[in-house]
Amino acid sequence: MANKDVLRRVGEIVDGYDCRQENLIAIMQDIQNEYKYLSVDALELVAEKLGVGVAKVYSVATFYENFSLEAKGKYIVKVCCGTACHVRRSQPIYDGLREHLGLTGKRKTSDDGLFTLETVACLGACGLSPVMTVNDEVYPKMTPESAIELIESLRAKEGESDGKA
Question: I want to staple 85 with a disulfide (CB 3.0 to 4.6 A). Which of 43, 118, 129, 139 is the partner?
Fold first, then answer.
């Protein structure tokens, strides 16, 4: 999607909240729900339309953990690291996926832009641990091997859909 189209849509979202400063968090949530992250251009437009400093918008975006300033992949993979999942060895799942996706340092998104790997404190599915989600669909009793198989099946599915287009 062209940047001007994104900015037009961001403007519509802000306008939908009557450009009211007290709706900053809700506005940012809507933008992130639509684009999976908050771009620099989007945050600057929000600041301009709300009549607040860019620093204020950035401070809110960086304070709340759920906001992302980095583009995310088509598939958001979350590995639970809560107590039940940790005890049942969720860390090797995360480590295996991280290595398989070629993620190093602070990088969370694969080079192909398909997968973003994150950890979460608890997914609330302790009886099914270790658990991970892909775009909020729960996958129970995972192992490093089954997690990698799932990633590869999604990657293959993407290849098939590319071939049909």
Answer: 129
The C-alpha atoms of residue 130 and residue 102 are separated, in whole angstroms, by 22
For residue 40, the model assigns a pLDDT of 92
User: For helices 24-35 and 40-50, what crossing angle results, to 10°?
Assistant: 150
User: Domain 75-164 has what CATH class?
Assistant: alpha beta
Residues with pLDDT less than 50, the chain: 1-2, 165
What are the two backbone dihedrals, phi and then psi, of residue 86, each rounded to the nearest 5 degrees?
Answer: -60, -45
pTM over 0.90: no
Q: Distance (Å, rounded) from C-alpha 71 to C-alpha 33?
A: 12
Residue type, 58: Y
Helix (H), strand (E) at residue 87: helix 83-87
Asked if 97 and 79 count as a contact pair (C-beta separation under 8 A), the reply is yes
Domain ranges of the chain: 3-63, 75-164
- Residue 64 phi, psi dihedral angles, 5° rounding: -90, 125
